[in-house]
Amino acid sequence: MHSTEAEITSSTSGRRPDRTGRFRWRVVDIVVASVIGVASGVIFWVWGQAYPTLGTPLEAVLPGLQGVVNGGWLFAGVLGGLIVRKPGAALYTELLAAVVSALLVTQWGALTLLSGLVQGLGAEIVFAAFLYANYRVYVALIAGAGAGVACAVNDLIITYPGADAPFVVLYVGSSVVSGVVIAGLLSWLVMKGLARTGALSRFAAGREAGVRV
Protein backbone atom coordinates (compact mmCIF):
# COMPACT_ATOMS: atom_id res chain seq x y z
CA MET A 1 0.00 0.00 0.00
CA HIS A 2 1.33 3.44 -0.93
CA SER A 3 0.97 6.53 1.22
CA THR A 4 0.11 9.96 -0.10
CA GLU A 5 2.28 12.96 0.76
CA ALA A 6 -0.27 14.15 3.33
CA GLU A 7 -0.35 10.73 5.00
CA ILE A 8 3.45 10.62 5.15
CA THR A 9 3.55 14.04 6.75
CA SER A 10 0.95 12.94 9.29
CA SER A 11 2.77 9.71 10.15
CA THR A 12 6.05 11.51 10.79
CA SER A 13 4.67 14.48 12.68
CA GLY A 14 1.77 12.94 14.60
CA ARG A 15 -0.64 15.53 13.17
CA ARG A 16 -3.70 15.01 11.06
CA PRO A 17 -3.11 15.43 7.31
CA ASP A 18 -3.52 19.00 6.07
CA ARG A 19 -5.21 18.58 2.71
CA THR A 20 -5.05 22.27 1.82
CA GLY A 21 -2.01 23.58 3.67
CA ARG A 22 0.29 21.20 1.84
CA PHE A 23 -0.30 23.25 -1.30
CA ARG A 24 1.06 26.45 0.27
CA TRP A 25 4.60 27.39 -0.65
CA ARG A 26 7.09 27.73 2.21
CA VAL A 27 10.28 29.76 2.11
CA VAL A 28 12.28 26.54 1.80
CA ASP A 29 10.16 25.54 -1.20
CA ILE A 30 10.96 28.80 -2.96
CA VAL A 31 14.66 28.55 -2.13
CA VAL A 32 15.04 24.95 -3.27
CA ALA A 33 12.96 25.44 -6.41
CA SER A 34 15.10 28.46 -7.26
CA VAL A 35 18.32 26.51 -6.72
CA ILE A 36 17.03 23.75 -8.98
CA GLY A 37 16.01 26.27 -11.61
CA VAL A 38 19.32 28.16 -11.61
CA ALA A 39 21.46 25.02 -11.62
CA SER A 40 19.33 23.51 -14.38
CA GLY A 41 19.62 26.72 -16.39
CA VAL A 42 23.39 26.39 -16.45
CA ILE A 43 23.01 22.79 -17.61
CA PHE A 44 20.52 23.93 -20.26
CA TRP A 45 23.08 26.40 -21.55
CA VAL A 46 25.83 23.79 -21.69
CA TRP A 47 23.44 21.39 -23.44
CA GLY A 48 22.66 24.08 -25.97
CA GLN A 49 26.33 24.59 -26.71
CA ALA A 50 26.67 20.87 -27.29
CA TYR A 51 23.59 20.68 -29.56
CA PRO A 52 25.48 21.17 -32.85
CA THR A 53 27.61 18.16 -31.96
CA LEU A 54 24.74 16.05 -30.61
CA GLY A 55 21.68 16.97 -32.64
CA THR A 56 22.89 18.13 -36.04
CA PRO A 57 24.42 14.76 -37.05
CA LEU A 58 21.20 12.97 -36.07
CA GLU A 59 19.15 15.41 -38.15
CA ALA A 60 21.45 14.80 -41.11
CA VAL A 61 21.08 11.02 -40.83
CA LEU A 62 17.32 11.01 -40.23
CA PRO A 63 15.44 14.33 -40.06
CA GLY A 64 13.34 14.44 -36.89
CA LEU A 65 15.58 12.12 -34.90
CA GLN A 66 17.29 15.11 -33.28
CA GLY A 67 14.34 15.14 -30.88
CA VAL A 68 16.17 12.53 -28.80
CA VAL A 69 18.39 15.26 -27.34
CA ASN A 70 15.47 17.42 -26.19
CA GLY A 71 15.27 15.72 -22.81
CA GLY A 72 18.32 17.71 -21.75
CA TRP A 73 16.09 20.81 -21.69
CA LEU A 74 13.07 19.16 -20.04
CA PHE A 75 14.26 17.76 -16.73
CA ALA A 76 14.12 20.94 -14.61
CA GLY A 77 10.33 21.03 -14.43
CA VAL A 78 10.00 17.35 -13.64
CA LEU A 79 12.73 17.43 -10.99
CA GLY A 80 11.30 20.56 -9.39
CA GLY A 81 7.83 19.05 -9.35
CA LEU A 82 9.05 15.79 -7.80
CA ILE A 83 10.96 17.53 -5.00
CA VAL A 84 8.87 20.59 -4.13
CA ARG A 85 5.46 18.97 -4.78
CA LYS A 86 3.47 22.19 -4.86
CA PRO A 87 1.24 23.63 -7.59
CA GLY A 88 3.39 25.61 -9.98
CA ALA A 89 6.70 24.00 -8.99
CA ALA A 90 7.29 22.31 -12.35
CA LEU A 91 6.41 25.45 -14.28
CA TYR A 92 8.51 27.68 -12.01
CA THR A 93 11.69 25.59 -12.14
CA GLU A 94 11.52 24.97 -15.89
CA LEU A 95 10.83 28.63 -16.69
CA LEU A 96 13.53 29.87 -14.32
CA ALA A 97 15.99 27.46 -15.93
CA ALA A 98 15.07 28.89 -19.33
CA VAL A 99 15.57 32.44 -18.06
CA VAL A 100 19.03 31.61 -16.70
CA SER A 101 19.94 29.86 -19.95
CA ALA A 102 18.79 32.85 -21.99
CA LEU A 103 20.77 35.25 -19.79
CA LEU A 104 23.88 33.19 -20.46
CA VAL A 105 23.07 33.72 -24.17
CA THR A 106 21.79 30.89 -26.31
CA GLN A 107 21.49 30.60 -30.08
CA TRP A 108 17.69 30.67 -29.74
CA GLY A 109 17.50 34.03 -27.96
CA ALA A 110 14.16 35.03 -26.46
CA LEU A 111 12.50 31.91 -27.86
CA THR A 112 14.25 30.08 -25.01
CA LEU A 113 11.77 31.68 -22.61
CA LEU A 114 8.78 30.50 -24.66
CA SER A 115 10.21 26.99 -24.71
CA GLY A 116 10.66 27.02 -20.94
CA LEU A 117 7.09 28.19 -20.42
CA VAL A 118 5.59 25.56 -22.72
CA GLN A 119 7.77 22.71 -21.45
CA GLY A 120 7.07 23.61 -17.84
CA LEU A 121 3.35 23.58 -18.53
CA GLY A 122 3.68 20.15 -20.14
CA ALA A 123 5.04 18.68 -16.92
CA GLU A 124 2.85 20.81 -14.64
CA ILE A 125 -0.36 19.58 -16.27
CA VAL A 126 0.59 15.99 -15.52
CA PHE A 127 1.28 16.64 -11.83
CA ALA A 128 -2.00 18.58 -11.65
CA ALA A 129 -3.85 15.66 -13.26
CA PHE A 130 -2.68 13.51 -10.34
CA LEU A 131 -3.85 16.25 -7.92
CA TYR A 132 -0.27 16.87 -6.73
CA ALA A 133 -0.61 13.76 -4.59
CA ASN A 134 1.15 11.01 -6.57
CA TYR A 135 4.88 11.12 -7.28
CA ARG A 136 5.63 7.50 -8.09
CA VAL A 137 8.00 6.68 -10.91
CA TYR A 138 5.28 6.24 -13.52
CA VAL A 139 3.99 9.75 -12.82
CA ALA A 140 7.51 11.10 -13.32
CA LEU A 141 7.70 9.25 -16.64
CA ILE A 142 4.36 10.66 -17.76
CA ALA A 143 5.43 14.15 -16.70
CA GLY A 144 8.58 13.73 -18.78
CA ALA A 145 6.45 12.61 -21.70
CA GLY A 146 4.17 15.61 -21.21
CA ALA A 147 7.13 17.96 -21.33
CA GLY A 148 8.37 16.13 -24.44
CA VAL A 149 5.05 16.56 -26.24
CA ALA A 150 4.90 20.24 -25.31
CA CYS A 151 8.47 20.76 -26.49
CA ALA A 152 7.86 19.01 -29.80
CA VAL A 153 4.64 20.87 -30.57
CA ASN A 154 6.27 24.21 -29.77
CA ASP A 155 9.27 23.42 -31.97
CA LEU A 156 7.10 22.24 -34.85
CA ILE A 157 5.22 25.53 -34.79
CA ILE A 158 8.19 27.86 -34.24
CA THR A 159 11.22 26.09 -35.71
CA TYR A 160 9.83 23.56 -38.19
CA PRO A 161 6.64 25.06 -39.64
CA GLY A 162 5.27 23.10 -42.57
CA ALA A 163 7.28 19.96 -41.77
CA ASP A 164 6.05 16.81 -43.53
CA ALA A 165 4.25 14.00 -41.73
CA PRO A 166 7.25 11.61 -41.36
CA PHE A 167 9.31 14.38 -39.77
CA VAL A 168 6.48 15.34 -37.41
CA VAL A 169 5.93 11.76 -36.28
CA LEU A 170 9.61 11.06 -35.74
CA TYR A 171 10.29 14.37 -34.01
CA VAL A 172 7.37 14.04 -31.62
CA GLY A 173 8.17 10.38 -30.93
CA SER A 174 11.86 10.96 -30.29
CA SER A 175 11.12 14.00 -28.10
CA VAL A 176 8.69 11.98 -25.99
CA VAL A 177 11.14 9.11 -25.57
CA SER A 178 13.84 11.57 -24.57
CA GLY A 179 11.45 13.24 -22.14
CA VAL A 180 10.50 9.92 -20.56
CA VAL A 181 14.09 8.71 -20.14
CA ILE A 182 16.04 11.89 -19.36
CA ALA A 183 13.43 14.20 -17.84
CA GLY A 184 11.27 11.50 -16.28
CA LEU A 185 13.35 8.53 -15.16
CA LEU A 186 16.61 10.38 -14.56
CA SER A 187 14.88 13.10 -12.51
CA TRP A 188 13.11 10.48 -10.42
CA LEU A 189 16.42 8.69 -9.76
CA VAL A 190 18.07 11.99 -8.81
CA MET A 191 15.21 12.78 -6.43
CA LYS A 192 15.48 9.35 -4.81
CA GLY A 193 19.25 9.63 -4.53
CA LEU A 194 19.01 13.03 -2.84
CA ALA A 195 16.31 11.71 -0.49
CA ARG A 196 18.55 8.85 0.64
CA THR A 197 21.30 11.30 1.57
CA GLY A 198 18.94 13.22 3.85
CA ALA A 199 19.22 16.40 1.77
CA LEU A 200 15.44 16.47 1.31
CA SER A 201 14.49 15.91 4.95
CA ARG A 202 12.25 19.00 4.94
CA PHE A 203 10.26 17.69 2.00
CA ALA A 204 7.82 14.82 1.62
CA ALA A 205 10.19 13.40 -0.99
CA GLY A 206 12.78 13.00 1.76
CA ARG A 207 10.44 11.87 4.53
CA GLU A 208 8.89 9.13 2.44
CA ALA A 209 12.32 7.58 1.95
CA GLY A 210 12.27 6.60 5.61
CA VAL A 211 8.66 5.43 5.74
CA ARG A 212 7.81 1.82 4.96
CA VAL A 213 4.53 1.58 3.06
UniProtKB/TrEMBL annotation:
Transmembrane stretches, start-end: 25-47, 67-84, 91-110, 116-133, 140-162, 168-191
Keywords assigned by UniProt, alphabetized: Membrane, Transmembrane, Transmembrane helix
Keyword Protein transport: no
Domain of life: Bacteria
Any matching Pfam family: ABC_cobalt
Protein name: Energy-coupling factor transport system substrate-specific component
Organism: Compostimonas suwonensis
